[in-house]
Amino acid sequence: MTDRRARPVSNSEAGVLELLRLFGDSQPMADEYAAGCLQKAKALEPALRAFEYLPVDTARRPGPLSGIPVAIKDIIATSDMPTTNGSPVYAGQVPTANAWVVERLRNLGATIFGKTVSTEFAWRHPGPTVNPWNREHTPGGSSSGSAAAVAAGLVPLALGTQTLGSIIRPAAFNGIVGFKPSFGAIPRIGVHPLSPSLDHVGFFARRVDDVAFALAHLAGSSDRDLHGRPLPAFAVDIGTGLPPLNKPRLAVVRFAKWSRVEGEQQKVFETAIARLCGEGAILEELELSEFDDANWTTINCILSSEAALIFADLVANYPERTSDHLKSLVESGKAHSATSYLAAKAFQDAWRHKLTAEMTGYDAVLTLPAFGEAPRGLHYTGDAEYCAPWTLLGVPAVTLPAGFGKNGLPLGVQIVGTYLNDHRMLRVAKWVEAALGFEAGTPNGLGLAPSTE
Predict the structure, then answer these.
(1) Phi then psi for 108, rounded to 5 degrees?
(2) Does pTM surpass 0.85?
C-alpha cells in the first residue's frame, strides 16, 4: 500500500492520524485544512445534501484531536447548533447542553463540523442525502449524512448511531470504514433514543487506525447511561497506529440468507477469503443456525416494543409531522406482549454469552455488511439483516471497503468480535485491511471533475 504521509494536507482522502502527523504544532496548517473542508462542503452541499447545518467557526482548539473536523449525526445534541432528529417536530431546536460524546470531542480539541442528515429519529423515513458515488442511489441509513460526508472527503471523521445497521451498512454503501463499538462503550446521554437496549454510538472514517484512535479517546461511562459498560483502556500511537493481529483465525459466517446476496457481493467476499488465506490467515466456515433462525424477529421485537414507549405520544400529538414509518413502528411495538418482549431480551442476553463460546479458538468473525450495492432511489435505505445479529448482541463490528459492484458502487466485508473485546477485533481488522490492500478512493458521483490533489 502507498505511503500517504507524503501527500499534501488538502488531500480529501487523508485520515485522522495522517492529518495529526501533518499538523503537528502548525496552527495555520490545521486552520487551512478546516477552512478547506468547509469550503468544499458548501460547494458540494447542493448536490450531496449531507448536512442539516454547517459550522460557522472552524478554529483549532488544543487537545489530542486538535484540528480534526468531526461531523455529528443530527440525533446527537449540540448546544450551539440545531438538533432536529431528522423530524419537522424538532425543526430549529437548539438543545441546552451537548451530548456526552460531543462534550468529550470538544474537550479533546476536535472541531465540531456541523450536523449531518439522519433519517427521522434514526428510523426508516429517509432524508435528502444522496450516495456520493451515484446520486441516483441511497447512501444508506440512518446515518446517511455522516457516511456520505466522510466518503466525499468533507471530513475525516463523523459520528453515527446504530440500532439495526445504521453505521455498518451505510459505510459499506459509501466505500469507507464504519465501526460500531461494543454496546455501552460510549455513553448515549444527549442522543435521542430509538431503542435503549440496542442503540450504539460509533464512527465513520477512512481507515481502521482512525476509528480505533477515536474509540481510545471517546470510550467512557456515565452514571446517567444505565447500559454503560467500561471498555478495557488502550492507546493508539499517532505515528504507527494500531498494531495488527497478524494472520488471524477467522470464522466465516454466511447465514442462510447468503442465497439472497447479489452475485458481485458474493464474488467480492470469496475473493477476500482467498486473499486473506493467501496472506496466512486461517478461515473456517461457522454455522450459527439457532441464532440465524431467531435474531431478526428478536431484534425487531425489542426495537419496536421500546420505540412504541418512546414515540407513542409523539405520533399521537403530531400526526401530520411524523411519518408512516414511525407510526407503523409504534403500532408494531404495541402489538407485542410483555411476555414476548421479555423472551426476546432473554434470547439477547443468552446469545451474547453463547457467541463467546461459539468463537472459542477464533479471533473474529468474517461476514457481510449488506446484500450488495446501495439500492437505487432514496426512498429505501437498504436491508439491515447482515448487521442486525451483531447489533442485537452488542458486539463490536467494523466494515471495510473491499471492491465495487456492477453499478460502480462500493462493496465491503464485515469483521465482528466478542463483547467488550473491541481492541482485539480492531487489531484483526487492521491486518485484514492491509491484507486486502483495497481503498475505494473519493467518488465522482456528484458530477464534479475528478480530484487532482
Answers:
(1) -85, -5
(2) yes
